[in-house]
Amino acid sequence: MKTRHIVSIVLVLAVFTLLAGCSSKPHELERGGLNAGDLMQGLLDKTTVTLGGVTSKKSAEEALPVLEDINKEFEKLIDTHGDLSDQGQADLSAQAKKAMPGLKDITQRINMQSYGDILRPTMHEMIGNLTKLL
Question: What is the domain range of residue 84?
Answer without folding.
Answer: 2-132
